[in-house]
Design goal:
Structural class of chain A: alpha+beta
Oligomer: homodimer
Largest sheet of chain A: 7 strands, mixed
Number of strands of chain A: 23
Strand order of the largest sheet of chain A: 3-7-8-14-11-10-9
Radius of gyration of chain A: 25 Å
Strand content of chain A: 25-35%
Largest interface: A-B, 54 and 54 residues
Helix content of chain A: 25-40%
Number of domains of chain A: 3
CATH topology of the largest domain in chain A: BirA Bifunctional Protein, domain 2
CATH class of the largest domain in chain A: Alpha Beta
CATH superfamily of the largest domain in chain A: Bira Bifunctional Protein, Domain 2
CATH architecture of the largest domain in chain A: 2-Layer Sandwich
Shape of chain A: globular
Number of helices of chain A: 14
Distance between the termini of chain A: 27 Å
Chain lengths: 477, 477
């Protein structure tokens, strides 16, 4: 355990160190695959619990589809295989024999699910059909980074079929909105929701919607996506239904996914020089009680009070832990839990007990001189909950300010281009809609992250012909 | 939708039909892999929710380990690779290239997890270490049956490391007890918990404990297992720790798993000629309200009352659904929900409303003349909950009687052997402990399912030398 690399000057190393030291992940013997350790998995469980409710509110039912997909299935949708072919892991042997047809480990499940939809959808009465799957997927990435990009990751993938394009489009956008709520309300991460440019679309989609965020190093991170697949996939898999007028029709489909990358977004948005900061709504431990004592007599009194305090907090729904380890010092415990980003620390010692109080410490304000606030034991649960709310909001506000401070209005690519790589940040500019102009951004190591609703720029950042939409340009993970 | 095959004379076909018609599963294009459809997945979610609590009560934390394991890892434990080699799916290509070392799709995760344990366990202070993973695994089975045996299945796998063999043994048995509770309390399936004979042990285990059940056709089903792995695995993966006296030691390990096979056990234990019967504690829908009406006026009144009734039941924690479909008849709805095994049906029509009552129908008593009971609307929630409890207990009692009725005391294999295959059932006999005598049972298509605590037989069923333990013999899935 050593001091973390400087977060301001060496963000990439800070990230690698903090996730190791806080025991979020560990490297595995399989290249590019990471072990999600209990503390990080508990974050994922909290995310899953909230997101699963939202998905069910969207009308989707959970189901489970096979991991292994016949290779020929991926080839049925031309753009899909073009997009995914370089990323496939292929099973060629099973039960000691060479397989007649290789099986790919799912990189996503459209092909399997639309094949099943072709069996399940026969009448307009079967629509809309909304299915969700919590699963692992494998994509053969060459450059990996825990949570952000790995060979295997965990996600949910929603797949829906509808009678009309309007209904499908509304579904894709409703999923996007649910994701936005997850990021903003639960993860305290401000985001931008928008449409991807055609070149950045999911392989096989009509429209791809994205959620983008800004990390502390000024780089953008694509948080999750939602696709209006329209009719290309269902047509490729012969999904057809008899409409109420007797005619045979092809449904309009959507798919949308939210992954363990969200944990990476939390780390890179909220962490500081002392370690992680967990947003209270998804923090595995919201408050840690550190008992402070010297003599055995004090120990007995303080531990008893700490246990009672823990009970009181649990009853109010706070996820609380008492650090009862008697082999380490309070200082070592402070360090341990600050590194792990527990939002509230409650210190309690003999003097506090004599004063019927405990000290509340806000994880966001470690560097402030007057960081401890006394709270009466009579109202400690309410005070803790109030502080958790303050921190949840404070994290969001701080990240939002950072995004606003790094959001630049930009005109000519030749002017703002160099800053994309050297200063990072978000650049809002006009765009003519052509892939040629879009490609110019890559020369500066940037990409168009998404199209924006707001229109401030009249002409394209490159060709200066009329702009069809403002776009957000950034260097991205 | 047609009548189900006769459950008494054609159980295997009844099973295949009922799971299709009730939309629990569907065949996938990948041989031996099945799609778990929403109604069955909801059962799995309910099981997961309860089992996850039990696992956390056992002290284990959830984590996630990579799906793909270097092939060489499986070879580190000699018995393990011997047992699993014929069942492996192997990834030989990734990202369009041949891999330097093939990766196997995990058939179970001991090898990956003990490798990680070797990094995480260095001191006696790190013990016990208890990890659980909810995951998919792949075993290349040739003869498959949905839920019971498939190429891919879902499970949890617990892996723990301890300082002493006694502590590890206690852990393996505590996991077994948690599984027994799951089966008996939640799934209403009576089971036998016992030790496996040495030849039936998990590949690499010192002791394998098993939970066995009896299906309606008189065949036994291994429900789940828990293993005392002791030191072979940790030694193979160099898991070592410094004990409090400074010496280096190898920990004692356990592993234990509970799978989607449990859904198969529920179907084969409780189903009847009309379809499934879902034990209330894990039923996705515990009560279905079927509104009965003829005129539009009646429809408005009845649907309003049904909605109010549903609200009242939901408030009491009952998982309830109102079948509001106006395009099908009440009779069709009865059939639909009986097939799916919803334990309680609530019928409500204009006459019932006039009498301030609804009719409660018990799914276990479809064939009885007086199967409907009126319940006052003032106490309908309590009456429904009471009936759900009655059904939960009734299902367990009925299955327990069946097990008792089919449990035979047996002496000489030559006498009871022929009945194993022709009549099925459970046969309790003495056993000398030799693998030779055990092998004789296979000549009658039976196996020793487990050793029993109770000792009623003095001599071995085959060699007639002294018995070391009573065993349970049966034909099994």
């Amino acid at each position: 355990m050593s001091k973390l690399p400087d977060i301001k000057t060496n963000f990439a190393e800070w990230y690698q160190e903090v996730i190791q030291q806080a025991q979020l992940v560990d490297a595995s013997p399989t290249r590019g695959c990471f072990v999600i350790r209990p503390y990080a998995y508990a974050v994922w469980e909290n995310i899953q619990q909230e997101l699963d409710k939202k998905i069910k509110d969207l009308g989707a039912s959970n189901a489970y589809f096979p991991l292994l997909i016949p290779e020929s299935f991926l080839k049925k949708e031309a753009k899909h295989i073009e997009g995914f072919a370089p990323e496939l892991a292929v099973v060629t042997h099973g039960g000691g024999k060479v397989l007649e047809e290789p099986l790919v480990v799912r990189p996503t499940s459209e092909t399997m699910i639309y094949y099943m939809f072709s069996k399940w959808i026969t009448s307009w009465r079967d629509l809309p059909l909304s299915i969700n799957q919590w699963a692992n997927v494998v994509r053969w990435e060459m450059r990996t980074r825990p949570f952000v990009r790995s060979l295997e990751f965990l996600w949910q993938e929603g797949h829906t079929a509808h009678r009309t394009k309007e209904e499908a489009s509304a579904m894709a956008q409703a999923a996007l909105q649910a994701y936005k709520d997850m990021y903003e309300y639960y993860l305290a991460v401000p985001v931008i929701a928008g449409e991807k440019s055609p070149t950045e679309r999911f392989a096989g989609a009509d429209t791809t919607y994205t959620i983008e965020g800004l990390m502390q190093d000024g780089k953008a991170l694509q948080m999750c996506t939602s696709h209006l697949l329209a009719q290309s996939f269902p047509a490729s898999f012969d999904v057809q239904y008899q409409d109420s007028d007797g005619s045979m029709k092809t449904p309009y489909c959507t798919s949308w996914g939210f992954t363990t990358r969200s944990i990476g977004a939390v780390i890179m948005t909220h962490g500081d020089q002392d370690g992680l900061i967990m947003p209270p709504r998804i923090a595995p431990i919201q408050a840690v009680i550190v008992p402070i004592f010297k003599t055995p007599e004090e120990q007995a009194i303080v531990l008893e009070k700490a246990a009672a305090l823990s009970q009181a907090l649990k009853q109010q729904g706070v996820r609380v832990k008492v650090d009862t380890d008697v082999t380490t010092t309070p200082g070592a415990k402070f360090f341990h839990w600050e590194l792990r980003g527990v939002p509230v620390r409650i210190e309690i010692g003999p003097k506090d007990i004599a004063n019927n109080q405990a000290m509340l410490v806000n994880r966001m304000e470690m560097d402030k001189a007057k960081k401890k606030t006394p709270a009466s034991l009579d109202v400690i649960a309410q005070a803790t909950i109030a502080l958790l709310d303050t921190i949840q909001q404070g994290l969001y506000d701080r990240a939002l300010r950072r995004m606003q401070d790094n959001w630049h209005q930009a005109d000519k690519l030749a002017d703002f281009g160099p800053a994309i790589d050297t200063k990072n940040g978000l650049y809002q500019a006009g765009w003519c809609g052509s892939a040629d102009c879009e490609a110019k951004v890559k020369e500066y190591k940037g990409t168009i992250r998404c199209l924006l609703q707001e229109k401030k720029h009249a002409v394209c950042f490159h060709c200066t012909s009329q702009s069809i939409s403002d776009v957000l340009v950034a260097k991205a993970y």
